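User: Can you model how 6-O-phosphono-alpha-D-glucopyranose sits in this protein?
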Amino acid sequence: MCGIIGYVGPRVARDVVLAGLRRMEYRGYDSAGVAVVSGGALHVRKKAGKIANLDTALESDPLPDTGIGIGHTRWATHGGPTDGNAHPHVSCNGRVALIHNGIIENFAQLREELQGSGITFASQTDTEAAAQLLGLEVAAGTDLAEAMRRVCRRLEGAFTLVAVDAAEPDRLVAARRNSPLVVGVGEGENFVASDVSAFIEFTRFAIELGQDQVVDVTAEAITVTDFAGAPAQTHPFEVTWDLSAAEKSGYDWFMRKEIYEQPRAVADTLLGRFNPDGSLKLDELHIPEEELRGIDKIIIVACGTAYYAGLVAKYAIEHWTRIACEVEIASEFRYRDPIITRTTLVVTLSQSGETADTLMAIRHAREQHAKVIAICNTNGATIPRESDAVIYTHAGPEIGVASTKGFLTQVAACYLLGLYLAQVRGTKFGDEIAAVMNELAATPPLIQQVLDSLDPIIALAHQFAEQRSVLFLGRHVGYPVALEGALKLKEIAYLHAEGFPAGELKHGPIALVEEGIPVFVVVPPQGRDQLHDKVVSNIQEVRARGAFTIVLAEEGDTEVEPYADVLFTLPRVSTLLQPLVATVPLQMFACELATLKGYDVDQPRNLAKSVTVE
Ligand code: G6P
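Assistant: Here's the modeled complex, given as structure tokens:
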């Protein structure tokens, strides 16, 4: 949500900034803007809508070639997505241009105070208050970095800020609190951005800024301080993936590419985390085994798709460890005063590692002295840095807003964690753990098998392209899979889609079933009590009422055949691992259907990839 980039160096800043904004489009936005410094003045162009609108504006009114610039894609919060509310915002004295990600909570009070002293505002944004404050500071002769620190000390809320001064053509300053910012370290050039994808084409060396830090950047130097001006500790890192991973490689959508990357992504998540004898080794989990043995409750907190991955994890973790495991939507968590003690383990799932709701939930958990383990895909992001330990999913960059490989790798990482806890606590024998681990290690080729057999799913998307409503049913771990299948359709195809526990259907939702409505049913493998048979009955219930049943069942399951209008066979895996294969056709159904409807699959309306506000 909101993409930020700044550049200082020998290249044409405008071009670097625009390229960076394009790479961050996936974060979600509804307006875009650029500012450069040249000839002692600021030059700003900004437009509502996609970057293409900004390109058109730049063609008719070009920006000068200079080596310093900032750019922003905005996801509207305060004030609609208009040209005027787009960033950068310029202080009314014309001194500074500023971009912002986050929410300045005390903006109304600041605005009132500034207006009282004669400042005129040109937008409805919270951001402009920060731009005006900074403009006043530098006009009064304060050094730019000190001016930024003074402004930050007055702001409440979440913010990443980047600013340039008309009088300083070689320097930009940036600050962060509760919102992401990385510095890209080049040779004779430097970058700041919301994420590394914005500058990966130019450098793979980066510095992650800590909480409440200000960075002063020229082409040759990077100076980091805290908000009080004291030198600050930073975390340099090298990005392990390259530009090709951040590009579409011939696919029409990042989402489709990411769906096809899942065998590799799951394999990478498992890589190096188990021994040849099938025992687990999670070296990165720096929590003493003794503490893990003392845990008496697990709470998983996450949002969106990651929450559904958490629901899958609950079944596995409880089954293997016999520890009670709750799963909670992060934005609800701290407001219900959850029962957390020193023996509670909070597990947080976040692809981006920047989701504000999730971040606030883990801060609350740590204040209550719980241990927090993050499962995250983004190196050095805020959530893993604020957790006691982290298991990285190693899925590579996920660009499509609707998460796919993020989900599968989160599920895989949760299995690892569950098995590890079972090993440490002795709730499963070594050979039992090894058996599950070996089966898990064998899933990537099975996911590939599903990917190789998606033609019937593509055909179904064509058949139901005009459909208004689709239902998804599952039981046990198939239930979160059904929820995820429905979420994908809502997110990218804008369809009414619902996921239900199949057994709950008769208590209400069955009233939604009408002639011809497509109903996807995830059928569990045979062999676990009566689970399979119950689902077969549920299929009959909806079919008897006219539903068109699309049944996902393991190969060789002949029992479901008579009740399936379309039968999609899944490779054989045990019940708990089935989400790794069963989710894939549902992802593809949504991707194909949204494509047929002509929607922007990678950047669905109103959504952002990285939701950095609560
Ligand atoms: C946003 C995205 C969802 C994602 C959720 C959690 O809402 O649009 O696709 O599932 O955030 O994201 P996270 O990065 O924390 O996994």
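A couple of observations from the model: Residues 303-306, 350-352, 355, 358, 401-403, 406, 607, 609, 611 surround 6-O-phosphono-alpha-D-glucopyranose (CB under 6 Å). The chain is about 35% helix and 25% strand.
User: Helpful, thanks.
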